[in-house]
Amino acid sequence: MNFTINKSEVVFHGKVFDVQIDEIKYNGSGNTVPRQVAVHPGGAVSVPVKPDGKIVMVTQFRYPFKEVLLELPAGKLDKGEDPQICASRELTEETGYTAQKISRLGKIFTSPGFCSEVLHIYLAEDLIPGRHAREEGEEGMEVVELSLEDIDEKIKNGKIVDAKTICGITMYRLNTERRR
Amino acid sequence: MNFTINKSEVVFHGKVFDVQIDEIKYNGSGNTVPRQVAVHPGGAVSVPVKPDGKIVMVTQFRYPFKEVLLELPAGKLDKGEDPQICASRELTEETGYTAQKISRLGKIFTSPGFCSEVLHIYLAEDLIPGRHAREEGEEGMEVVELSLEDIDEKIKNGKIVDAKTICGITMYRLNTERRR
Fold it and tell me: How many CA atoms lie within 13 A of B88 on its CB side?
């Protein structure tokens, strides 16, 4: 790094994210510039695959868009939580399934220009059904099971627009070398 | 929507994003809850494809991670800017290439749980080389041209972690039906 951080201050403490403003000084030019970062605890995503190849997904009401999106199961890391534990926990809470086998596919940075969010992505297999902990509440979370072909079609026609979901499916496909 | 927005306030005005806090009241339960949103102007991404199938990418220093990432060319929308114009503009600024043909692949929501960022994704073809407007500065933006096979490998081994890049490549592949 060819800059120095002169100062760093959290100017907003939020429920999901904080806002931090750093002042950095470039060593070469001596210029001083502010850097504003949305500081996020990160999260974990699972790609839950059933024996017939279908992927278990959920519908989520997303407040920033006032829309219900079709997504892979995912959630924020609790403080100090292992991402794999988080992926398993969120899978069960959101879908009822428990994964007997879980393996890492990788990580993504959702919006690295201004946000520190990292999502860790896991393949979840050998799924045992159960009752999901989150009741179908006012916002109507539903479990949906789709083939890879159906998911591809929904990405193509704009019915799936959630970045972590498109990334998770891609990483699953690349890692298992499954192709249509 | 089965809730009412009681009030809405921007509590942080930033350079890249604002923070808005809404108070919503569920019509059913009557419960009142806050919703904190990172409000972002959105942006545009291009998937620039050369006649030999290679994809033009750039390296970007990303402050939230203090890392240099390998990404598709992209940038924020100027106020009122058409996303396709933005995609073309950022392509030229970042790589020097001008696209004679540009077509829409779709859109993604980068982090829909808390952030309103939408990225519009375009396929850029018939590229004419030129000099890129952004000098290789202190943060070393470089232009890199990679085959789809190399990109897949870099997604698999964690050398490409930027969500919009993984999504853009996936949407390109699905739309052109190109496969390895």
Answer: 16
